[in-house]
Amino acid sequence: MSTATPTTRLHGIEVIDSPARMQQRMIQARADGKRIAFVPTMGFLHEGHVSLLKAGRERGDLLVLSIFVNPMQFGASEDLSRYPRDLDGDLRKAASAGTDLAFCPTPESMYPVGFQTRVEVTEVQKGLCGDHRPGHFAGVATVVLKLINLVQPHVLLLGEKDYQQLQVIRRMVRDLALPVEVLGCPLIRDDDGVALSSRNAYLSPHEREQARTLSQALFAARQAFAHGERRRDALLDRAHSILAAQPALRLDYLELRDASDLTLPPSTLTDPAVLLVAGFIGRTRLIDNILLAR
Ligand code: AMP
Question: By alpha-carbon position, which residue is closest to atom 7 of ligand 1?
Fold first, then answer.
């Protein structure tokens, strides 16, 4: 008699919720010679997530998605309890992007009683979202390290939408010599320019209009850059003038940083830079960024 747990399949995707079973399954996949591509998410999938899955499909023979709304990366006053969820819809979208396996653990299984480890990427997590969301990047780094240990991917696909998060994970992977390739994938926007985000679901139609201000400000700076503007303050002023005209926006920050390590660039740009913005429209915190490079 076999003692193996029967495989659960939804929309053609193998679904695993137990971390221990996931790790066993992936050890076996590696032993079978599979190349594993992994896309970690918090679910409520949109075309941004799907673009990562499609990029992963091209880079591995086993495409793994995780869906886990990670409590450790939410602050006490943040939106953990109301974060949007739709497992069935997610698995349908994931299936059409060619996903083989979805790992969907519970918080209790990822953080059993007694869990106390934190991973801190001390410098990259400073400033930007790190200042406005204390503890956020430690929560992200800790869960991503645990997910990497469970999934054991060859390639990890992350979006440039969360630019600081991508740099935090790149630094952690380098510092801890994790045997995984990190691939940053382009930010996907809606037709109106707004960066796709699961949190856009919170916006009323009116707020959605107001949310366009963020990308409009970034586009204005990019246009100035394309016309040859290289002065840091002039680029920031260009974006600020658009943001300031939107009274519904409560700005957290608008900053220009070096694109590779997020350090402050010189007053006249010489290397690729990234312009990052974060702020609230109503109760919804939105982030966006744009690359300023030749
Ligand atoms: P989340 O579910 O918001 O934690 O995002 C999971 C992954 O999808 C992260 O690597 C994000 O950077 C990426 N992602 C989210 N939104 C977008 C987007 N609009 N374009 C590209 N990648 C995205």
Answer: 41
Which ligand 1 atom sits closest to the C-alpha of 165?
12
Cβ atoms of 194 and 268 within 8 Å: the answer is: no
Given a cut of 50, the residues of the chain with pLDDT beneath it are 1-2
d(CA 133, CA 129): 6
Query: Which residue has the least CA distance to atom 11 on ligand 1?
Result: 159
**Strand intervals (E) in 204-266:** 249-258
| Per CATH, domain 7-185 is 3.40.50.2300 | no
- Ligand 1 centroid, distance to 144 Cα (angstroms): 14
Which residues are catalytically annotated? 49
Pick the residue whose CA is nearest to atom 10 on ligand 1: 158
Nearest-CA residue for atom 12 of ligand 1: 159
Q: Which of the listed residues 53, 161, 187, 190 should we mutate to test ligand 1's pocket, taking the one with most ligand atoms within 8 A of CB? A: 161
Give the other-Cβ count within 10 Å of 84's Cβ: 14
Same fold flag, 7-185 and 198-292: no
The 10s digit of each residue's pLDDT in 135-156 is: 999 999 999 999 999 999 999 9
CA distance 18 to 97: 24
Chain centroid, CA 248 distance in Å: 25
User: If you ran DSSP here, which 8-state letter would residue 157 be given?
Assistant: E
Q: Which residues line ligand 1 at a C-beta cut-off of 6 Å?
A: 41-42, 48-49, 51-52, 158-159, 161-162, 185, 187-188, 195-198
One of 3.30.230.20, 3.30.499.10, 3.30.1300.10, 3.30.160.20 is the CATH number of 198-292, namely 3.30.1300.10
The pLDDT score that the predictor gives to residue 1 is 45
Tell me the per-residue pLDDT of 250-285, one tens digit each, with 9 for 90 and over: 999 999 999 999 999 999 999 999 999 999 999 999
pLDDT of residue 226: 98
* Whole-model pTM over 0.85: yes
